[in-house]
Write a structure and sequence with these properties.
611 residues; alpha/beta; Glutamine Phosphoribosylpyrophosphate, subunit 1, domain 1; Rossmann fold; 3 domains; eight-stranded antiparallel beta sheet; 23 strands; binds 2-deoxy-2-amino glucitol-6-phosphate
Length: 611
Amino acid sequence: MCGIVGYIGRKSAIDILLEGLTSLEYRGYDSSGIAVNIDGKIKLYKAAGKLQNLKDIVDKDYREVSKSTIGIGHIRWATHGAPTVENAHPHSCNCGRLAVVHNGIIENFKELKEKLEKKGCVFRSQTDTETVAHLVAAKFAETKDLTEAVRLATKEIEGAYALCVIHQDVKDTIVATRRNAPLVVGLGEGENFVASDVPALIQYTKKAMYIEDNQIVTLTPDTIDLIDIDKKKVNQKFETLPWEPVALSKMGYKHFMLKEIHEQPDVVRNVLSGKLRAIDEPIVLKEVTLDKEKLKNLSRIQIVACGTSLHAAMVGKYLIEDFCGIAVDVEPSSEYIYRKTITDKNTLVIGVSQSGETADTITAIRQAKSRGSHILIVTNRPDSTMAREADSLVPVNAGIEVSVAATKSYMAQLISFYLLAIYMAEVKGIKDLETLKHELIILPQKIEKILAHKEEIQKCARTFANSKDFIFIARGINFPTALEGALKLKEISYINATGYTAGELKHGPIAMLDESMPVLSILMTGKVYEKMLSNSEEAKARNAKMIALTDSTDSNLYELFDSLIHIPPISEILSPALAVVPLQLLAYYIAEFLGKDVDQPRNLAKSVTVE
Ligand code: AGP
């Protein structure tokens, strides 16, 4: 989703801003812009579409633009108003002396706009953000103090925001603030940085401070001042970021998605490391602080998440119910927050999020926390808002994921749920999970086998790349795998793909089947294998093109299925962690075959920071 970067120092700002925006590109956006100060005057450069369009515009004016040692930049994922140049950030006020970039949504922008228009403000865009530009400009006209102007403006703004503001009358100053949207400041020598996410500043500094809600930070090249909304000084807590810039390289792969799929064996090893030490030792989850007596007496668990994380949560439900006998509800965060959910202090609420910044999930966990529930967060970003608000944490250690389509973070979430479910079972005194622990340890080798022999998957991708629709069916613990396989395919190839429980096929979806419809059966040996075969027969009888993803070596399957994708044998309970890999690859090869923008699919954002 939108991204912010700001620089103030003694170097030319433009390259730093553009590089910062490039490193945030993966989040998904549809226009971009920067504001710099050239010879004492604020100048805006904006473009619709890809960042390259902005770079081309800036290039034409490079000699002038490169004079500026201060600047703010933005990539915009459209919410209010189409992705046009006029709606691209930065936005300005009537006099053009101020520039604002904004992530989030100003919920009361209509009322603010009406008031501001009555005072003579002329709006040039359809965005909610432009109200902030006019509002801060009005406050600045009264106070002549940019920090104070931003502070007073935030008292009138409702909604979610990370904001960066510059004004030509206050040279060498950037003012930034946030509420329910991430913002991080990077400390340099004779220069300072601000951004909505770490990748934008990691190549310049590793010393960073996360800004909290309602704090206002004022940056000059040599100083950083931090106050709260009541003007009180706040202690500055800088930390050393554990990130390496190399994480953002494709390392020879054509796309980040392909690289990230191939990283999964190591991701599994990383997640297990230090937590699963030996099969006869209990699982260690240091950051789970829930009292063991309380854990034993939990009445229910609720898991909230969105998209791919929701699918990992569905596997988690299956595992916790199976191992621990505790009732688990899984719900999309965006539904959970708009109904009367029954939670109390005996309910554990688990939030799952790759980014830790998904607005719906943040709101869901805050609601649950206010009702007294213990909040456990499973996230790939221990530095995120969710992680910082959690009572307990399961850090999933997948490393930064650049491709919008989640792959390795899903794997890491799945493995984390296996560990969590075993941990909970062990706390409850259930001890017969050694075979599963052993299988977890050897899982990376099985994933490596799939990655080394992709021919069946590539062939299947070529055969079905021109399909308009795609159906994935599964039963039991692999139903979420079917949903995830379908989500991956639709996200990056734009093929209409849907996952169904195989038993539901005959209750409606079977009406869609004919010779043009591929049906992929997730056919794992185990208790639902025979039933899956029957459901596949039913689809075959309607002339559907049948594909099996299976760990069975039964040669009779060639009679029922048009294409087969084999994976190494695996227990049914662990099979979601293996079966998803060929589905990620299938989606990847189909999208690549169709020439789609694999890493930055249209309309999608990596981190969805609006509700
Ligand atoms: C996954 O491929 C998607 N990009 C999307 O569904 C994602 O999983 C969802 O937006 C949730 O994000 P989160 O895990 O960062 O909360």
